[in-house]
Amino acid sequence: MRALEAVSVSASHGLEGDHAGKSPDRLVTVMSSEAWQDALDALDPPLEAGEHLDWTLRRANLLTEGAALPRAKGGIIRIGELLLEVTGQTWPCKRMEEARPGLLKALARDWRGGVTCSVRNAGPVASGDAVEILLSPPEVKRRLP
Questions:
Q1: What CATH number has the domain bearing residue 119?
Q2: What pTM was computed for the model?
Q3: pLDDT of residue 18
Q4: In what order do the strands lie in the sheet with 6-10?
Q5: How far apart are CA 108 and CA 50, in angstroms?
Q6: What is the DSSP letter of 12?
Q7: What burial letters (b/e) apply to 77-108, b meaning 16+ CB within 10 Å?
Q8: What is the predicted pLDDT for the residue at 20?
Q9: Are 136 and 75 in contact (CB under 8 A)?
Q10: Quick check: helix, strand or coil at residue 2?
Q11: Which stretch, 3-7, 23-27, 122-126, has highest mean pLDDT?
Q12: 25-31: average pLDDT
């Protein structure tokens, strides 16, 4: 993973330069810096003094700040000219546990791993672009009977 200051996003391939073969419903993943911090705060065992984990470890495509991401399918996020539709929760993979014990579990709760999205309106995105939540349907919590 590498952080970019700007990138183009297409409706057919997602982020320019990202690996191909993704489902159209999972072209872009978005995570909030607040959710990343919540996951770090929930680590068990906790971070040691001076230990730092960069958000790129999560391998999300885009990191937002100051906007509560939708927690339900159908949510709409605008970032600059880019328009994304939430298709689901991004579930962390086993690589998170390999990177740091406890990280997978910390990210799996409360949508901390972010959201997967399809691209409704392609366009460029750049660091500092405004993030606007246009639609945030109510979260559906599934429970066993």
A1: 2.40.33.20
A2: 0.91
A3: 84
A4: 14-15, 6-10, 123-126
A5: 24
A6: T
A7: bbbbebbbbbbebbebeeebeeebebbbebbb
A8: 57
A9: yes
A10: coil
A11: 122-126
A12: 93
